[in-house]
Amino acid sequence: MLVKLYTKNPDQRAVDRVVEILDGDGLIIYPTDGVYAFGCALRSRKALERMKAIRQKSDGDFSIMCSDLSHIADYVKVDNAAFRLLKRNLPGPFTFILRASSKVPDKALSKRKTIGVRVADNAIPQAIIAGLGQPLVTSSVKDDDEITEYTTDPELIYEKYGHMVDAVIDGGPGGIVPTTLVDLSGEEPEIVREGGGELIL
Questions:
Q1: Cβ within 8 Å of residue 186, ≥6 positions away
Q2: b or e along 60-93 (b: 16 or more beta carbons within 10 Å of the residue's beta carbon)?
Q3: Is the pTM value of this prediction over 0.85?
Q4: What pLDDT score was predicted for residue 49?
Q5: Which of 15, 23, 99, 108 sits a CA distance of 20 to 30 A from 3?
């Protein structure tokens, strides 16, 4: 299924349809403020296993996409310094690595104690996650060395992956630059990967 949504005022009926898919252990591809990404409900073990098989990645290679800052605080341990840094930079093209709370299922963590968290500056994932009531486990459609129209054009993404997922969300052309990856699990913030965001300390 190819679902058209606009970043300005996403149609609620279409959002509800996507939420219903995710609630039923579905797997989607959706736009972010960077590249298009696979996504499934955090509590859906079945969909997570499907995403792992498609992406050929282990549990520890995924992040979670939240709707806002308060949502993040439910799933990771955030001290005052980290919260101030998140507030200055989110929503935006960042993934922050933080210590996971007990609300993150072990299946999404593998043997790690940390997980990457995001809040995209895009109304489409924000609306979907708000309706779902839980984060999306997420993984970029493209690999770091793979930039093609099959990772940026939603119709071509649907052509390539439509038989593997339950819905592709057409939110317009996707980006080619991944998020800036920042590790906040140590004493000082560490930029692990340069990407689309310039960190404001």
A1: none
A2: eebbbbbbeeebbbebbebeeebeebbeebbbbb
A3: yes
A4: 92
A5: 108
